Amino acid sequence: MKEVWRLYISPPSTGAWNMAVDEAILENIVSGVSHPTLRLYAWNPPCLSLGRSQPYTDIDAASLKKQGWDVVRRPTGGRAILHTDELTYSIIAQNDNQHFQGSILESYQHLAKMLLAALKDLGAAVEMKKEKRKESRNFNPVCFETPSAYEITVNGKKLIGSAQARQKGGILQHGSLPLIGDLTRITEVLAFPDTQERQTAAEKLLKSASTLKSALGYGVDWDRASKSFIRAFESVLGISLIPKDLSEAERSRASDLIQKKYAHPDWTERI
């Protein structure tokens, strides 16, 4: 019998709401109230997210304000991501769930099979790089230019950035698939020592990362991409997804987390 998970497709929301919802779902799953969940979502307005332990000083606050973009700190690690024109996924379950067995890297490898299948369904010639690339010694606050094990690439360029957190008796893995747009926009709102370093970061980003449109030569909209993720999740992992909204308890907890954590300077600017 197939394991039953919830499918929650969110409307585009702020960075604080998106992170608060992921954590609220995690808490309710751990308490046994909610089913393990695949969540697919988007961001409005565009949002710069920092990794859990990334310095807030990596941000160029004046440029961020000028752009009218949001900022949030993720509960997961890694470096900065600009969330816009993308499909974001989160996979949330109790820490003893069969799909998160073993180490973080082992579960990454397992879940990457689903991500690979989804992207192949969209027409992308993707592969999984098992070894870490040699990390640059240069200052670099950008996630998509940062090497990681089991990253998914197309034509040698990183296509999905993912991160995982194991806490509170549960596991949250989320990641982003850039669909279209200029990936170098992120360098406009990050602090660099000088203009040359900013330009260098932008050039390296284009050499090491890709949008889905760049990989395919044509655009894929959010709805089509989400359907490929759903099909791959069910077929590769052997899970039955049942569409279901947030519970009232999850909504209430998310609202509380926004006020006390994700929209609060004590969390966002804590480092």
Question: How would you characterize this protein structure?
Answer:
This protein has 271 residues and is an alpha/beta fold. The protein has one domain (3-268): BirA Bifunctional Protein, domain 2. 35% of the residues lie in helices and 24% in strands. It is built from eight helices and eleven strands. It has helices spanning 15-30, 61-67, 104-121, 195-208, 212-216, 222-237, 248-262, 265-268, and strands at 3-9, 37-41, 47-50, 70-73, 81-83, 86-94, 126-129, 151-154, 157-167, 170-178, 239-243. It has an eight-stranded mixed sheet, with helices on both faces. Strands 4-3-5 form a three-stranded mixed sheet, with helices on one face. β9 (157-167) and β10 (170-178) form a beta hairpin. α3 (104-121) packs across α6 (222-237). The termini are far apart. The relative contact order is 0.21.
Quick overview of this protein structure:
The chain is α/β, with parallel strands linked by helices. It has 8 helices and 11 strands.
List the helices and strands and how they pair.
Blueprint: E1 3-9, H1 15-30, E2 37-41, E3 47-50, H2 61-67, E4 70-73, E5 81-83, E6 86-94, H3 104-121, E7 126-129, E8 151-154, E9 157-167, E10 170-178, H4 195-208, H5 212-216, H6 222-237, E11 239-243, H7 248-262, H8 265-268
Parallel strand pairs: 1-2, 1-11, 3-4
Antiparallel strand pairs: 2-6, 3-5, 6-10, 7-8, 8-9, 9-10
